[in-house]
Amino acid sequence: MTTSNYNKVIRNQRIFAKSLLCLSVLSAMGYAQTPEAEKADEENIEVIEIRGIRASSAENLSIKRTSDAVVDAITAEDIGKFPDKNVADSLQRVPGVVIQRSGGEGATVSIRGLSSDLTFTQLNGNFIASSPGEPSRSFSYALMPSTMIERVEVFKSSEARLDEGGIGGTVLMYSRKPLNMDKNSGIINLEYSNADITDKYEPQFSGIYSWKNDDEDLGFLLGYTRQDRTNRSQSARVNIINKNFLYQERKDNQLVEGGAKGYAPQSMVQEVLEEQREREGFQVTTQWRPTDSLEFGMNYFRFTLGQDSILNQLEYPEWNNNDNFWTDVRVDAEAEYVTGIDYSAGTSGSQRLSAIPRINGEYKREESVSDTFDFYAKYEGDNFNAKLTFGKTEAEGGPSEKFRAAYYANESSLYYGYDLSGHKMTTYMDPKMIENLTAGIGGQADVGATDSSFVTGTQEEKYASLDVDYFVDWGMVHTLHFGLKYRDGKIHRDTRNTFYLSPDFDIAAGEAAGTINLDDDYSRNGGIPDIRDVIMPGSLGNLSDVINTNLFPAVDWQRYQQIVSENFVQYTRIEPNYVYNVQEEITAAYLQADFSYEDFRGNLGLRYVSTTTTSGSSDKILYRLDWKDAQGNLLPEDEQRVEDFVYLEKENTYDRWLPSLNLVWDLADNWVWRFAAAKVMARPGYDDLGQYQTLVYTSNEYSADRSAADDFDSIRDSEGWTGSGGNSSLLPMESTQFDTSLEYYYGEGSGVGIAFFKKNVDNFVVPLIIDTTRSVPEQSFTLPNAGDKVVTAGGDDLLVRDFYTVANGTDASSSGMEVFMQHFFDNGFGIYANYTRNNTNQANVELDGQKVGESPLIGSSKYQWNFSAFYENDDLSVRASYNKRGPSVGGYVASWETNFYTEAYDQIDVNASYNLTDSLVLSASVINLTQSETYVHLGNDTDNRFIQNAYAGRRFYLGATYRF
User: Which residues, in sequence order, are CB contacts of 571 under 8 Å at separation 6+?
Assistant: First the structure.
């Protein structure tokens, strides 16, 4: 908040009388006042304390009321006491906000139905880098400890002074400052948590200490938080779904006459991800006011997030979808979807032994680190304020070690099957499977599924800005805001491999020759542990209803890693060819005029933005030429395929003019009407822009050799081209949007309102799978193991099947309404609620100028409903919160010509605290009391095409906070 907001305060004094609480709110928000006003309010500012749900809710409503834009706010109930465990969890209670969770904890935020990549989040007015390995524009709220945050504002309408990037909206987080706090004040908080699908009680500690001198012109603030937490997410999902084969209903291995026909999932998995999350956060803030007019400040933030994890999977591919293996096929005729298949060896005398289910696993050690430093100098003159800011934010993240491995069931399970009816996945297998594996029956390692590839990334941005508030007396106009900002952002993404090499392997010689590859890894040299040495003695336990299976055989991946580490030498190679880089230089200038006339107020502004994007990637062309020799023996990998790489770089420059208007009419003492219009923009995701392209050619010789394999894939393994990659030609997303609302404030902290909004969005990004064309230089290869046969591949306008990419959508619209209500009763009870309705159209999806399909806005939800009720007295505070998100739109599947849809999701959270003394508070919380789970299906014509359901647990917290 700038000093010019004082003028808004003076204007609003003519409209409504401020209570003592409101004055303290404005002081806490940082409104600068005239010397006379400061002198008059000085004593009140020193003694007023804002504590509790009621006070913070009233403060939130006051910020909304006095703002010139469409703004919702969340403020801390007290020092170090944010309303929820995570900033994102609190934001989900704001009208129109949807959060996405990771491990049951809020991770990203979407506003009014748009992707989280279109929510622009800043800390103290600037971007925070938070690379989790795959660089993203979407801020990872899992990095941000809520104890360091004083308040959060959600801008749903734009102002020229706000940085561009938030088509959905802009989230501004403000950290605490020492000169706004009492001398030698702070908190110490200790808390323990436990979830119903883990068996651990884990601690969380946070502390804040603030000091300032007696003259209150020099202050320091230190903040620290640490959290140890085990997240255990469980899901069952369809991994691949396409219209490859149409299967007919079958019973006892006989076709049902006139039976239904449908398409089957190509791969399904049941998985349990256990993540050991260690989060640390540091904050150092200083303020110095050498004179009444001049202030210097510095902020340093460091966030680290360790995410070591183990993933257990049971996989069910479609490799055995033929009458050599199955006995029964069940089909939902209306959905054209195979809902179940039974496989059994020897049931009718003809079935063959299946290799499925496959026991998969992944072991990963990972950490993300984010460092941000900024410095500001602020000068307050007689009729202007000026602020100079510069800083740097950088992050790096990704695994330091990762491997995947797999074992086939084979003889250990003589039958298995699955069923996808009833909005869940049910699987069943031979109950003696683990017993058989322990005895050495079945369990052969899948060498081809053992790999160690992983992604790491870095992200940084340097920035500098000058902002000026010039106070004028030009009729209606009372303040001019103008400024400049320069940002230079870079991301780097690379791929690495962790190989385990024989102890006598000459690593130095291999590095010098550049020949260390997968053929040298333990997995290709008989080093995969025997499953008898690593299989868990019993079925994986503590499973939720999401994992519906009679048995979950699993490998002890810690033991697996120990065996490999004891017998081989770990070596990590940075792949020189699997990289992409994106650099953006952004220059922006703005002019904004704040105005007021009688009962009208608002602002009118224009922002100019120039962006130069340079993206480069190492595109890969893989030629799969031959698989087996003439005797049927598997060829070495370097004789099977040839790889070629080429690094391509592209520069794109574009300028945009972004006008904005916010108009507020204070109709009466308690009524406020708003109107807002703006043009806003957001840049495509880094991965969408820079992701390297992979084109794979499969020869007729290779395809013929693979055709007899049980895991033959009709798309991937047939002759011709397949591929995937980003789209460096993506245009920036743009939206012309309008808001209008009517608000009624009828008491201290009480009010109701209704808002209508419309966004016309161009160039939104849609993931899709399509058949497309590409041009590749023609090459010829001789196959020595196939009689020196010559294979020629390449040329212009080649058909590429099932190309995974992204494209721009055009002429999309999102319109809807929001309703909010907040009411305090005199007996200590209170309620606040909001409802958002969002409608999107079917927009065109274009690739290379050609329409390839239609899709709604990705990430959009039909509605959201929040309701909270609380009771509070001097010692006790209790709140129950209900949150429901309507069906939301996922990625587009070209073969089905429809999207994935996430079904409506709701959950209840409960928070309580009790003041033992004025300084010591006990607290308890239950998150996801209702044990809610998510459900995803394909298409909006039916909800019976199962794609995924997932559950991350119900979590309990118990803690104590000491304030001083």
Answer: 498, 499, 500, 501, 507, 516
- What CA–CA distance (Å, rounded) separates 128 from 281? 13
Which residue has 């599947």 as its token pair?
893
Regarding predicted confidence, which is higher, 263 or 350?
A: 263
3-state helix, strand, coil in the chain (%, to 5): 15, 55, 30
Give the CA count within 13 Å in the CB-facing half-sphere of 266: 13
Torsion of CA 922, 62, 146, 141, to 10 degrees: 140
Angle at which helices 20-28 and 52-66 cross, to 10°: 80
Residue 743 CB partners (closer than 8 Å, separation 6+): 64, 65, 671, 672, 673, 674, 751, 752, 753
Report whether 247 contacts 321 (CB < 8 A): yes
Calpha distance 933→949 (Å, rounded):
7
- Residue 639 in 3-state DSSP? helix
Q: What is the dihedral of CA 497, 502, 505, 507, to 10 degrees?
A: 30
Close Cβ partners of 715 (under 8 Å, ≥ 6 residues apart): 242, 244, 722, 801, 802
Question: Quick one: pLDDT band at residue 25, thresholds 50, 70, 90?
Answer: very low
215-224, 373-382, 852-861: range with lowest mean pLDDT: 852-861
* H or E element that contains 393: strand 384-408
Q: Helix 5-13 and helix 52-66: axis angle, to 10°?
A: 100
Identity of the amino acid at 633: N
Omega cis (within 30) before 357: yes
Report CA 19 to chain centroid distance, whole Å.
Answer: 41
With both helix axes pointing from N to C terminus, report the angle between 20-28 and 35-47 in degrees, rounded to the nearest 10: 100
Helix (H, G, I), strand (E, B) or coil at 749: coil
How many Å separate Cα 795 from the centre of its chain? 39
CB 403 within 8 A of CB 451: yes
Distance of CA 542 to the CA centre of its chain: 27
Q: Per-residue confidence at 715, pLDDT binned at 50, 70, 90?
A: confident
CB 555 within 8 A of CB 562: no
pTM assigned to the model: 0.80
b/e sequence 815-826, b meaning 16+ C-beta within 10 Å: bbbbbbbbebee
pLDDT for the residue 59 = 81
Residues 31-58 have a mean pLDDT of: 48
Token pair, residue 487, equals 């940002």
Angle at 25 between CA 824 and CA 374, to 5 degrees: 130
Burial 327-360 (b: 16+ CB within 10 A, else e): bbbbbbeebbbbbbbbbbbebeeebebbbbbbbb
Place of tokens 């102002």: 159
Q: Is 554 left (phi over 0), alpha (psi -120 to 50) or beta?
A: beta
Q: What is the per-residue DSSP string for 574-602?
A: EEEEEEEEEEEEEEEEEEEEEEEETTEEE
In three-state form (DSSP H/G/I as H, E/B as E, the rest C), the secondary structure along 351-381 is CCCCCCCEEEEEEEEEEEEEEEEEEEEEEEC
Pull the structure tokens for residue 539.
């079925």
Task: Sort strands 548-549 and 426-429 into parallel, antiparallel or unpaired.
Answer: parallel
Structure tokens at 561: 């890693």
Between 493 and 500, the higher pLDDT residue: 500
pLDDT of 103 reads 63
Q: For residue range 778-791, what is the model confidence (pLDDT) as tens digits?
A: 889 998 888 888 99
Which residues make Cβ contacts (< 8 Å) with residue 67, sequence separation at least 6? none
* d(C-alpha 141, C-alpha 218), whole Å: 31
Rounded mean pLDDT, 134-155: 76
- Strand-strand pairing, 720-724 and 789-810: parallel
Q: Report the alpha-carbon distance of residue 691 to residue 804 in Å, rounded.
A: 11
Q: Decide the pairing of beta strands 876-885 and 863-872.
A: antiparallel
| 3-state secondary structure at position 841 | coil
CA 863, distance to chain mean position in Å, is 20
